[in-house]
Amino acid sequence: MGRYIALIIVVIPGVMAVMGIKWMRDTLFGVLQAPFPILWLQFLIGFLCFAAGLSFVGGFIFYRDRKRNKVQLKFKKK
Predict the structure, then answer these.
(1) Which residue windows are transmembrane per the record (predicted)?
(2) In the chain, where the domains are located
(3) Whole-model pTM?
(4) Distance between CA 24 and CA 42 in Å, rounded?
(5) What is the pLDDT of residues 36-68, one digit of tens each?
């Protein structure tokens, strides 16, 4: 049960990062999606979603690896 919860915790920000990439790509091709009134706002929200999703997934993996002592010495807790 715990593995499924961890999977859901990682998948939701992962999907958010993918949507951010899609919105940024659509902005570069000039395609305006429904919830956004202007292209630059679509790009900005897409970038923020991508950065937040990527940092959450990266932080989750780093925390898990640090807990299992699979990181370099400079990243281990003192």
Answers:
(1) 41-63
(2) 2-75
(3) 0.84
(4) 7
(5) 999 999 999 999 999 999 999 999 889 989 999
